[in-house]
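To close the chapter, one final illustration. This time we ask the reader to focus less on the individual chains and more on the assembly as a whole: which components sit near each other, and how the overall shape emerges from the parts.
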Amino acid sequence: MIVAAVATATGSILFLLLVKIMCSLSLEESSDDDHRGGVALKKGPWTSEEDAILAEYVTKNGIGNWNIVRQRTGLARCGKSCRLRWTNHLRPDLKKGAFTPQEQSKIIELHALMGNKWAKMAQELPGRTDNEIKNFWNTRLKKRRRAGLPLYLDDIKPLLSNPQSSAPSAYIQYANDSNQAGTSSSVPKLVFNNFTLISDNPSLYVHPISEIPQKNTFEQQQQQQVDASLASELPPSFQSFDDNYNDISRQPPDPTETSLVSELQPPSFIPFDDNALIKQQPPPTETCYDDPLFSRLPPNNRHLDAIPKILDGSDHSSMQEELLNSKNKENLDPTNQDVLYDISRSEDYDNKGENAFKDTLFSIVYPFIPPRFKRRYNNTS
DNA sequence: AACCGACTCAACCGCGGACGA
DNA sequence: ATCGTCCGCGGTTGAGTCGGT
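The assembled structure is written out below.
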């Protein structure tokens, strides 16, 4: 009997303790909100009536102390839900509709600088919410990952602030820079030395190896038929390289190589989307080539180290030598030369190894790889 | 017309920082 | 120093929509 009474009392105490703990937990915001003050709180989409109540309250009382909104208005919504609804939908300064191309470019640029800092990014895009930006980015991320496309110039992003690079393609400008005085922004700005984004063309990225066209047999046959007519339309860099290559190796071509000529055509892409860029400064003059600091190709030629990674590794030294001696390296786009220069001088190159920059390097260097090496790449990939 | 998968986006969740008692 | 509350952030979910079959 006594034992039973003790057991009952102990059980009651434990029960009361449990109830107390449950009650205290229900008052914490993190577990919020379903039953605050004994009233079941509503979840899910807001109705226009709820919107009107909340908007009227905020208009009269201003924002802040969201948890008393329910008490004052009778809304069956928690404070967090009210704040979210106001900031993301009811604020009068919100911009509705899809992101403009300018805004998309800005988001891409900001994400390259600060990562998933949606709220910070939203500060740079007036009228846009962090939620909108986050959704936009995640959608874009999903699409481009599926397509095997890079998100931005990711591989060279670490270079942008590389203090050792004396001739960077771009740098990060902070709000307290002298020439930024007067701006209220606290977010650093990405500044390109020689180029600026055309705002309605957000497709600025380096094409990865995966975008190099992989022709099937039928397409190869078709390609062979049109190769001759296309040859005269090749970009100058390809034509001049082929001329140069022919100058170097005048011996009769190997018949097996001849059959592969159509595979050796330059890829149908431009290493950089030139349409996305406007040149602000004229290309460097020829005298630049003589200046080791501003060599049109990286002086230490580290970019060439990435190439054997893609090839079979047996003949890369001769290919490097050929590339180095190639007269037409002047045809390399000045911007790409800057990128290569930065990459070759980057500490990140040492830290991450060549794989981190492989795609970027290869897309730039590809047009300058002799055809026979391209064939080797095609066979081994 | 029905179904299905992809996509969009509003809303929720959990966490952590700030701040006052 | 500790606790409770508020607030904001980033990640995730799920309902609705759209387009293709």
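Confidence is low (pLDDT under 50) at residues 1-36, 153-350, 364-381 of chain A. The longest strand of chain A covers residues 170-173. With these observations in hand, you are ready for the problems at the end of the chapter.
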